[in-house]
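Below is how a single chain appears once it has passed through the pipeline. First comes the sequence as given, then the structure the pipeline wrote out for it. We keep one example in the README because the format questions we get most often are answered faster by looking than by reading.
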Amino acid sequence: MKCQLIMLQARSVGRRAIDLWHETSGAVAIEYGLIAALIALAIIGSIIQLGESVADLPMQSLIDAFAGALS
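Resulting structure:
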């Protein structure tokens, strides 16, 4: 009787392991997280590049550029 109970528990654990192996919702969440991280890195990189190029310009030329873009 005790041996049968142990065998049933082992099968149950095995089935759970197989079910977890075939589970894909966690993988999809990880993929979306990686995509979001790559987009964030691209945004941060472009902001850093823009900041470095804007830092070299005098303030009046920036004001003129924004005024020209708005009109």
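The longest helix spans residues 25-55.

See the next section for the split statistics.
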